[in-house]
Regulator of SigK (uncultured Microbacterium sp), 280 residues
Amino acid sequence: MNEEEFAELSAGHALGALSPEDERAYTDALAAHPEWAAIVDVDAETVVVLAEGVADVAPPVDMRSRLLSRIARESAAPAADPTTADAGATEDAPAVPPLPEVPASIAADAPPAPSAGPPTEVVQAIERRTWTRGLFGLVASIVLLVGLGWGAGALANLWADPPAVQALEEIEQAPDAESATAELADGGEATVHWSESLGKVVLVADGLPEIPSDRTFELWFVRGEEAISAGTFDASGAESTTLLTGAVEPGDTIAITVEQAGGSPDGDPTTDPIVAIPTA
């Protein structure tokens, strides 16, 4: 997998639109290329910015009446006869005058229109499980919501919590949720939360030391004699919640080191860990 292909998976991961197969491919690729963690961070921040950057739009006052009128026209259109479709294709169909606009006062009291079964094309689209189809559908849904008057406040609620916070909530509700805590040298503490069934690990750290702007914290799965990068993060406040890249395995130790900006250049820790938390 090249960096461009990973960037596409990262965008789908940030939107929660990956299939289970693509999610595994994304996780494996990031574990093999920890230097791509910066792409993941940018995508996560972009999702939040997109949600907060949509201006409020008031829906047209006649929206309901226009929808009811459109439904009425579609319901009144005669179905095509497949036995005569070819013969009629060469003849001009008679013009059907549009139905008059339904006044808003009448449309407000109208009973709801009966729902028709979805077209075959829609059913087929739903059955496709590739994340790209899911991503296109999500974008289309956002456009529709904005058109109906959903502004930044409503859309922001869809991504009100960062991915790490959402993952922590999922882990805490999982039946196999586990956690382990260790104290930091400067008096703070770090807690690792994980669920093997979900394949997610989250670190909650309080009181991390201050580091220079050209340095960053990097997480590691210490597995036997091997250290596997689990992504980088910056502690911007007193408490930091970070979703690790990759899944914990029995016996792993979660460690934090201070590395140069962007993470370790060779994929191995270059400093001693400031904390190490066994999960066994």
User: Anything to note?
Assistant: Confidence is low (pLDDT under 50) at residues 84-91, 121-133, 155-159. Strands lie at 178-183, 189-195, 200-206, 215-223, 226-233, 239-243, 253-260, 275-278. The two ends are 33 Å apart (CA to CA).
